[in-house]
Design a protein that fits this description.
By secondary structure, the chain is an alpha/beta fold. About 40% of the residues lie in helices and about 15% in strands. It contains 14 helices and 15 strands.
Length: about 450
């Protein structure tokens, strides 16, 4: 909420515009709708640049633009070209650690460097106040470097609204993060396709009235696990129906272990059936028992419906690929990471922390739980994930010792040289390019 308040204050006081940068279309879209709802009473016009979506009236028609990294860079380039960057009062970057991303980090670094370059020129010419830059991240170890680079004040906190308990399951035994034995998982029966007792872990949480989010390495694994869990929920409902039918004189029975809002479930199924694409057969089987999966194989509309059903508690268990950990905000009481190995290698510490960070819903849960499931042979890998520190973020533009000019740096230089940056007082475009690249993140490393 801090960023939202800073945006509101800056826009209302300066009558300038704001850009809010997020890494993915899904989370940018979610943020756009949220800010439209909370800022409408203040009279702020909020719209977004993401995917194929853009404001009908362009940047001039909004006070706050929600953008993905690529769209934000294009918007800043256009403002520079039209010499209108002074219209911008504040830029907020959520998930600032993306600046170290090998694929897209260079673009975010270049965007911020251009803003720094522009502000330095304005200050040198005694122009108006600079663009305020606000960066946020929960997984950024070298904050000091970033704050020096951005010439920013640093605010750091370890506060978490909902306490998180991390654990690891090796075989059938559950350990805490210091590898102290907690308990053994003893399922009441053997469930086909669930050798690692994931279903009992789900039932523990669902029967207590909470939700479960499971991360799997592949789309196929997501679907198979969702089917396995849904099949067990179906069995529970069938057994309850038999008991109800056979109960003498309608004797009172304990409710089933899994409680679903059947009207809401039918509504979700109906929404999926009414989409232009036919209902995914696997999703159709699992959703009717409160279980769903979420991956890139679903259409945007399907994912939107599944996300809404999970938020509302209609879907009790959601099985997803790792992209969801840094996408839309879908927290759950318990997060289960199905394996420490994703795409043939150990999960990166950043990805692991983003996954477990989904555990615990503010305002709903009093605590969050994460369980990393691994085999005995993977125990050492699990320990390393629980104890490893995040890698410091490094520039994607820097040329390492003995290496040639990186492709990212080449693209950055070409963009700067081709853009309409005002080099007056510096020299020609080549001098300007050197000046801009000297202001990039590596320069703050000394």
């Amino acid at each position: 909420m801090v960023a939202e308040l800073l945006i509101l204050k800056r826009v209302l006081e300066t009558r300038k515009k704001a850009i809010y940068i997020l890494p993915f279309v899904s989370v940018a879209r979610e943020k756009m709708f949220y800010l439209q709802s909370i800022f409408q009473d203040a009279g702020l016009r909020v719209d977004g640049y993401m995917g194929h979506h853009g404001p009908a009236g362009g940047f001039s028609s909004v006070d706050l633009a929600i953008c993905t990294i690529e769209k934000a860079n294009g918007l800043v380039n256009r403002l520079l070209e039209e010499k209108k960057l002074e219209q911008l009062g504040i830029v907020v970057v959520d998930e600032l650690h993306m600046i170290g991303d090998a694929g897209r980090g260079y673009l975010l670094e270049l965007l911020l460097t251009k803003i720094r370059f522009h502000d330095i020129k304005r200050r040198a010419n005694s122009d108006a106040s600079a663009v305020q830059v606000v960066g946020m991240s929960a997984t950024l170890p070298n904050l000091d470097l970033l704050s020096r680079w951005l010439d920013a004040q640093l605010y750091r906190t370890d506060y978490r609204p909902v306490p998180l308990t991390e654990s690891v399951k090796v075989g059938s035994v559950l350990y805490d993060r210091s590898m102290k034995r907690i308990r053994e998982i003893r399922p009441s029966k053997t469930i086909k396709g669930d050798d690692d007792q994931v279903v009992p872990l789900c039932l523990e949480t669902v029967t207590a009235g909470h939700s479960v989010l499971i991360f799997c390495p592949t789309k196929k694994w997501c679907e198979l696990l969702a089917e396995t869990i849904a099949r067990e929920f179906y069995t529970i409902f069938c057994e309850y129906s038999k008991k109800l039918k056979n109960s003498e004189g309608g004797a009172a029975l304990e409710p089933p272990a899994v409680h679903l809002n059947w009207d809401a479930v039918r509504d979700v199924v109906a929404q999926l059936k009414h989409l232009p694409v036919s209902l995914d057969p696997v999703l159709g089987k699992t959703v009717q028992y409160g279980v769903a999966f979420h991956h890139a194989g679903l259409t945007f509309d399907e994912r939107d419906i599944v996300e809404g059903a999970f938020r509302q508690g209609v879907v009790k268990v959601l099985v997803a690929t790792s992209t969801l950990s840094s996408g839309v905000n879908l927290p759950a009481r318990r997060v289960i990471i199905r394996s420490p190995i994703f795409r043939g290698k150990l999960i990166e510490v950043l990805a692991y922390q983003q996954m477990v960070g989904r555990a615990g819903r503010k305002g709903v849960d009093t605590q969050g739980e994460s369980i990393l499931v691994c085999k005995q042979s993977e125990k050492s890998k699990a320990v390393s994930l629980l104890t490893a520190a995040l890698k410091p973020v490094q520039s994607c533009l820097v040329v390492r010792e003995g290496a040639t000019l990186s492709s990212n740096m080449k693209r950055a230089i070409m963009e700067v040289s081709a853009s309409a940056v005002d080099y007056r007082g510096i020299g020609n475009a080549a001098d300007g390019s050197r000046e801009i690249t000297s202001l990039s993140l590596p320069a703050g490393h000394s």
